[in-house]
Amino acid sequence: MRVLVTGASGFVGRALVFALTDAGHDARAAMRRPKAAEFPIGTETALLADLASPVDWAPLLAGVDAVVHLAGIAHAGSGIADARYDRINHQATAELAAAAKQANIKRFILISSVRAQSGPVADHVLTETDEPRPTDAYGRSKLAAELAVRASGISFTILRPVLVYGPGVKGNLAALARLASSPLPLPFGAFQNRRSLLSLDHLIAAIQFVLRDPARNGETYLVADAEPLSLADMIASLRHGLGRSPGLISVPPSLIRTVCVLLGRREVWSRLSGELLVDPRKLTGIGWKPAANTRTALTSILGARAHSASIESDAP
After folding, report:
1. Maximum distance among all alpha carbons in the chain?
2. How far apart are CA 84 and CA 82, in angstroms?
3. Does a structural domain hold residue 95?
């Protein structure tokens, strides 16, 4: 199968191209700045224009059997206009889906986000039957993209991953990994609020799983590791990857909340204390199985970084 991967130079896209190649598929890696050296030998790379303007998708779709659409703004953040989220995440996706339908593409996999369904926290365990209630421009743009794909008439599957982690991760988990790398004890031992997470390897496996199964046409799946973790568990797992003890002190969360409020950092408190749990049983119920538990997979992030640093320090 020849698969067009948009956003192929990103955190998920690059890993997906390698996985597709290993599985015997031909990947067309589309990105803003094509660099063939970053991919397996023989990978076809293609220039993907800025999604802020309409794109001529026809050349990218020529000779392709399937599309995995990853390109777009991949996070919620300040300083990004609502219209930019809508143009890049929603309208560009709608245009791609329409072009793919016209080109008779067999399968279209849209990598959406749990944020199309919920805000950054939820007061109950989320399932696909919950009515989508995005709380920001990022989430709304993702939900609009999903609706556009549904309306296009193409054979599609939508995946809504939770926060994805793995070596090279950016964003909030990268900040947490840097914090865990500190030799200092951390005051989060009493934080038992839990979050669902998703290993990069598990997301790649989920994409490949639905890509090869046309029976998943028209379905939407939440994707998460089976085991949610508390903030304390996350830090302990990351530090275990460095061969260290958790080093956690049980400071009352209410005290840390007061400090955050006094410092004008309510958003920090929200990230530390929020809970977002997802039930992935719709996807696991049809045969997708995470290969490792979350604690083990999280351990690999700092463990791999420490191993890499050790190799570099030993180099002549």
Report:
1. 59
2. 5
3. yes
Residue 313 lies in a domain: no
How many C-beta atoms surround the C-beta of residue 155 within 10 A? 16
Q: Is residue 50 part of a domain?
A: yes
Residues for the chain: how many in total?
316
Which CATH number do you get for residue 40?
Answer: 3.40.50.720
Per-residue pLDDT 10s for the chain (316 aa) are: 999 999 999 999 999 999 999 999 999 999 998 876 689 988 999 999 999 999 999 999 999 999 999 999 988 776 889 999 999 999 999 999 999 999 999 999 999 999 999 999 999 999 999 999 999 999 999 999 999 999 999 999 999 999 999 887 877 788 888 888 889 999 999 999 999 999 999 999 999 999 988 878 999 999 999 999 999 999 999 998 888 999 999 999 999 999 989 988 887 787 788 899 999 999 999 999 888 788 888 887 775 444 343 322 233 3
Coil vs helix vs strand at 27:
strand
- The 3-state secondary structure of 147-210 reads HHHHHHCCCEEEEEECEEECCCCCCHHHHHHHHHHCCCCECCCCCCCEECEEEHHHHHHHHHHH
Q: What tokens does 39 get?
A: 């991919």
- Angstrom CA distances, 191 to 128, 251, 256, stand at 28, 9, 10
pTM recorded for the entire structure: 0.91
Q: Would you say residue 214 lies in a domain? A: no
